[in-house]
Design a protein that fits this description.
Layout: H1 2-6, H2 12-40, H3 47-68, H4 72-95, E1 97-99, E2 102-108, E3 113-116, H5 117-135, H6 143-161, H7 166-182, H8 187-210, H9 216-229, H10 239-251, H11 275-308, H12 312-336, H13 355-399
Antiparallel strand pairs: 1-2, 2-3
C-alpha cells in the first residue's frame, strides 16, 4: 500500500475531488436506490450500493493506471481512437440497443455488458482535437490548413451522435469550440461554425415538423415546448421536472439529512439524471454548493496545468477534458433545478452508471498524467537550480 501511494503522483487537489465525488456518489446512489433494490432485488437494499462501489473502485484503478502513462502516448492513441469511433457510432445507430426510441448503447456479446459509444467518441475526439491544435499552431489562422482539419472530425462525430443523443452532440460541439478558442482559432471561423450548426438544427426541426415529428425529434420538440411554457403553466411541466422541484423545495438550506429523501420514491432516475435533485433534498443548498465548487475547482486546477505545461498537446488535453466534464456537470445541475430543458446527461462520477464512470475516470486519469509530467519537470528544474547554486557557491569558496 505504501508503494502504491508513493507511486501516486499528480495534482493532490484533483485526487481529493475524485475521492470526494466518489463518496458523494455512494451516499446518493444508496439513498436513491434503496426502495428500488428492495422491490427488484428481493429485499437486498444494498445491491446497487455494492454495484456502484465496484464501478467506482474500477474507476479509481483506471485513474491510477492512466495517470502512470506518459501523456504523450495518448497523442498516438488519439488518431486510432477517432478512426474507431466512426464505425462504432454507425454500428450503434444501425444495430444498437433501442431504449426510449434512441439507439445509444451496444451490448458486448460475451460479458453481456452495455456501454454508450458516445462516451468513447467524446474522449477520442478531445484527444484528437488536442493533437491537431498542438500540431497546427504555426498555421492555425489558415482556414484550409489549420481550421478544417480540426473542425471536420468534430462535425463528423457530432453528426453521428446527434440522431440518438442531441444534447450530448451539442455539448460536445460547444466544448470543442471552447477548446478551439483557447487554441487560438480565429473567432470568425468559430462564429461561422456555430451559425452553420444553428441553421442545420433549425432545418432538421422544420423538416421533422413538416413530416409529422418522427423519431427523436418529436421528443426534443416536446422538451423545448415544455421548457418554454413551464413558467406560464406549472401543471404542464413534465412529471420528472415537477418531482425535482418538490425535492429541491423540500431540501432548504441544510437538507433533510442523509437517506431521508422522500421524492426518491417518485422522481424518475433519481439515481442518475436527477441525482442532483436528490442531493439537494438530503443535503440542502449547502451540499449542492459543495458539489458545484468541486467541479469548478477541477476546472481551475486544469487551467493551472494549462499554464504550467510546457508542451501544447498536454496543455490542450488537460483543459479540454476538464471543460467537457464541467460543462456536462453544469448541464445536469441546470436541468435538475429547471434552468435547462430535460436531457439525458448524467452528473460525472456521481450518477450511477457503468461506462460513463469508466470513461470519466479515464479522462481524469489523463488529466492527472499531464499533472504528473508537469510535477516531474518542475522537480527537475528545481533540482537543476539547486545544483547550479551549489556549484556557484563552491566556485566562490575556491576563488576566495
Amino acid at each position: 500500500m505504501d508503494g502504491l501511494l508513493h507511486r501516486t503522483k499528480g495534482d493532490k487537489v484533483i485526487w481529493t475531488i475524485v475521492i470526494f465525488l466518489s463518496l458523494v456518489s455512494l451516499l446518493a446512489v444508496y439513498s436513491a436506490t434503496g426502495s428500488l433494490a428492495y422491490r427488484l432485488q428481493g429485499g437486498h437494499t444494498e445491491y446497487y450500493l455494492f454495484k456502484q462501489l465496484s464501478v467506482l473502485v474500477m474507476g479509481l484503478l483506471i485513474i491510477y493506471f492512466a495517470h502512470r502513462v506518459n501523456y504523450t502516448i495518448y497523442s498516438r492513441v488519439a488518431q486510432i481512437g477517432f478512426l474507431l469511433s466512426i464505425p462504432l457510432l454507425i454500428y450503434t445507430l444501425a444495430f444498437g440497443s433501442h431504449i426510449n426510441d434512441a439507439s445509444r448503447w451496444i451490448r458486448l456479446p460475451v460479458i453481456n455488458l452495455t456501454f454508450q459509444t458516445s462516451d468513447v467518441a467524446k474522449l477520442a475526439i478531445f484527444m484528437y482535437v488536442s493533437r491537431q491544435l498542438s500540431k497546427r499552431q504555426g498555421n492555425i489562422t489558415d482556414f484550409k490548413k489549420g481550421f478544417l482539419p480540426i473542425i471536420v472530425p468534430v462535425g463528423v462525430i457530432c453528426m453521428l451522435i446527434m440522431p440518438a443523443n442531441m444534447s450530448t452532440a451539442l455539448l460536445l460541439g460547444a466544448s470543442c469550440m471552447i477548446l478551439c478558442f483557447i487554441g487560438r482559432v480565429p473567432v470568425k471561423y468559430l462564429v461561422a461554425m456555430v451559425g452553420a450548426g444553428i441553421v442545420l438544427i433549425v432545418l432538421m426541426f422544420a423538416f421533422a415538423s413538416l413530416t409529422g415529428k418522427k423519431g427523436r425529434t418529436e421528443t426534443w420538440i416536446k422538451r423545448i415546448e415544455h421548457f418554454r411554457s413551464g413558467d406560464d403553466d406549472k401543471s404542464d411541466l413534465p412529471y420528472q421536472v415537477q418531482q425535482a422541484n418538490i425535492a429541491i423545495a423540500g431540501g432548504g438550506v441544510l437538507g433533510k439529512g442523509p437517506g431521508n429523501s422522500t421524492q426518491r420514491n417518485f422522481l424518475p432516475h433519481a439515481y442518475s439524471d436527477y441525482i442532483y435533485a436528490t442531493i439537494i433534498e438530503e443535503y440542502g443548498i449547502f451540499g449542492a454548493f459543495l458539489i458545484l465548487m468541486a467541479y469548478m475547482l477541477l476546472l481551475l486546477r486544469s487551467i493551472s496545468l494549462f499554464r504550467k505545461c510546457p508542451y501544447a498537446f498536454g496543455a490542450f488535453l488537460a483543459v479540454g477534458l476538464s471543460i467537457t466534464l464541467v460543462i456536462q456537470a453544469l448541464t445536469n445541475m441546470a436541468v435538475n433545478v429547471g434552468l435547462f430543458p430535460v436531457t439525458g446527461v448524467t452528473l460525472p462520477l456521481v450518477s450511477m452508471g457503468g461506462s460513463s464512470v469508466i470513461f470519466t475516470s479515464l479522462a481524469i486519469g489523463i488529466i492527472l498524467s499531464v499533472s504528473r509530467n508537469v510535477e516531474e519537470l518542475e522537480g527537475k528544474r528545481i533540482e537543476q537550480e539547486r545544483i547550479a547554486r551549489v556549484v556557484a557557491q563552491q566556485a566562490e569558496i575556491e576563488e576566495f
